[in-house]
Please model this.
Amino acid sequence: MSAPSSNRRTLLWLQSGGCGGCTLSLLCAEAPDFLTAFEAAGIEILWHPALSAETGGEVRRIIDDILAGRRRLDILCLEGSVMTGPGGTGRFHMMSGTGRPMMEIIRELCRRSEHVVAVGSCAAFGGITATGDNGAGAVGLGFDGELAGGLLGAGWRGAGGLPVINIPGCPVHPDWVTETLAQLASGGTSAGDLDDFGRPRAISGTLVHHGCSRNEYYEYKASAEKLCEIGCMMENLGCKGTQAAGDCNRRAWNGGGSCITGGYPCIACTEPGFEEPGHPFVETPKIAGIPVGLPTDMPKAWFVALASLSKAATPRRLRENATSDRVRVFPEHKGRKP
Model:
C-alpha cells in the first residue's frame, strides 16, 4: 500500500496465536462495510495479513521503517495472543525471514505506536490459545487472564497516553472494531472511556442480557431444559448473558443474529477466562439448586426470593413454551369472546 498522507491515521494489523476469526468477523461489517468505515474515519491500512498484497520482504520493510522511525504508526492492532513460550523466549512463534520471535517485534512496535489495540479475547487476555497448561505461554498484550501484565506489563501506556485498548469477543463483533478505531482516529478516546480491563465502556457498559429475545422467560424463570427449547437458558444450560459485557442482542450480527437467538447460551466470550469456566459450557453449576453464576450485582437472597415469586406467577403460555422447540401456546387477548 502507498505511503499515507499526513492527515490520515496509519494502522498496522498483525496476527499472532489465534485462528484469524476476528478478521473473518470484521469482513462481515455492515452499514457500512469495514473499508468504508475506515475511509470515513481517515484510517489508512499500512498492512493487514489477509487484506494486503505485500508479502515477505515487502512486509518486513514496512515494519523496519516503523521501527526505525521512518514511517509513522498511529494504531497497532494485534489479533491473537502473544506466544511467549518456550520458557519466555517466544521462539514458538517466529517472524519469517527475521530469525526473531514475534513477541519481540510486537513489543517494539507497541513502543512506536501512538495507540495499541488488542482485537479479540486472545489478544486481550490470552483466550482460547491459553487453555489447559498453556505450554505455549499464550498471553494478552496487557493481561494474562484477569491479571494485569501480559506481554507489556501492568501500568503500560502507549505514546498517546492510553493503556492497551481491549476489544474482546471470540470472535469480536465487527462494529466494535470499526467504532473503536474511528473514535481513536478522531482523538476522542480518553482513559475514562475504558473499564478496568481496558475495554471501551461503549462495549462493557451493556450486558449481553440486555435485549435478549428470551427476557420474558428469564423474568418468570421459565427455563429451557434442552438446547432445542425456547425458554431461558440461564438456569439449566449455562447461559452467562446476565454476567457478560456486550450489546450482542441489541446489535445484531450478520443482519439479525446472536448466539442466543441462534439457540446457544452465552459463554461470556468477552470476559477474561471465559475459555475455562470449570464446567461444560452448556451446564449451569448449582449449589442447593441455586445457580452459582448469578446475575451481575444481584445478591443471592434476592435472587432466591425473586425466582420463587416469578415461578409462582409464570403464565401457562411461558411455562409450556419454555420446554418446547417452538411457540405452542399463544398470547390470549383479554376481553375477547370466542
Notes: The longest helix spans residues 300-312. The first strand starts at residue 9 and ends at 15.
